[in-house]
Amino acid sequence: NGDVYVAGFPNMIGVIKAMSNPNNETDVASSVWRIRKVIVRDEEAEKEFGFEEGKGGRIEHVVEKVIEDREGKVLPAASTVVHDMKTGNLWLSGFASKFITVCEPKPW
Predict the structure, then answer these.
(1) Residue 50 confidence class, pLDDT cut points 50, 70, 90
(2) Smallest Cα–Cα separation from 7: which of 104, 101, 108?
């Protein structure tokens, strides 16, 4: 559906410490954000142009935090995230990460 998943660092000082001393095991906090494109209906434009033609609304981007590890114990230095559309899993790794992490979605 066009969602974009982005890895981020909530604490840049931790990232700088990890990069300045790569031999030292440093826990770097990481987070994952999803950017989703949504169409917001505009009733006035819909009456004039019709929603089917794509002119009855406007496109907005919604940014939401999916997961965050403030201590850097589970997702240490995750600078790369891949979303598996089939299973819904998130695969995370990074420049100073000690391992690859797989996050499974919660059952609703």
Answers:
(1) low
(2) 101
